[in-house]
Amino acid sequence: MGLREELERVAGLARRLAAPGETLAGVLPAEPGPDSRVYLCAFVDEPGARSWVALDAEGEPISSRSAVRDAVSIAALCELAEETAAGGELERLRADLVTLRLTENPPGIEEAEAAALDLERVLGAPPRLATPSYLDAVGLATRRLEQALGDGGASPFATALKQGLVAVDELAAEVEGRYKLELT
User: Fold this and answer.
1) Alpha carbon 38 to its chain's center
2) How far apart are CA 79 and CA 167, in angstroms?
3) What is the pLDDT of residues 113-154, one digit of tens each?
4) What is the DSSP string of 118-184?
5) Which of 52, 50, 32 is nearest to 41 (CA)?
6) What's phi and psi for 53, nearest 5 deg?
7) What angle (nearest 5°) sits at the alpha carbon of residue 122, between those of residues 175 and 116?
8) Model's pTM, two decimal places?
């Protein structure tokens, strides 16, 4: 079964956990460690308040605080990495590189185009499974692109991720604070 089908199956299971007036807003798949698939399910009610529950691979609710926190953290970090890779404008950057190659053809342009294409391949198309190896692959492909573009100093991508850790912690606190079950 592919990830898209898994998400549809889990969404069906999660909808049964919706409180009156709530709807399932989304399901984020994460695998914080080997063989530890977690589906973070967000619910929203009419005023817009969110609540959360995490389901395991069998669709059973998870009550372990550390398992939920690990899943939220890797999902949020992967989302942040996707949004900040190549400044969040990968498609535009690729088009600009093509234009630059056609108009000026500076040395190293082919390497930069190849690195941008590699990053696009790593990012892939949704849905994506948030894993540490995916996060590493996005980071490596982004750094390769930064270096091909002549940025040999501090990585803007790494800086953005570090700055985003506050938002990751805030999301984890929200999930824990608005979790549908008691966390142990």
Assistant:
1) 13
2) 11
3) 999 999 999 999 999 999 999 999 999 999 999 999 987 788
4) HHHHHH-SSS--B-HHHHHHHHHHHHHHHHHTT--SS-HHHHHHHHHHHHHHHHHHHHHHTBSS---
5) 52
6) -155, 145
7) 120
8) 0.92
Residues 6+ apart with CB under 8 A from 93: 86, 87, 116
Q: What's the N-to-C CA distance of the chain in angstroms?
A: 31
The pairing of strands 23-30 and 38-44 is antiparallel
Digit-coded pLDDT (tens) for 5-22: 999 999 999 999 999 999
Q: Over the stretch 28-41, which tens digit does the pLDDT of each residue have?
A: 999 999 989 999 99
Q: DSSP characters for 138-150?
A: HHHHHHHHHHHTT
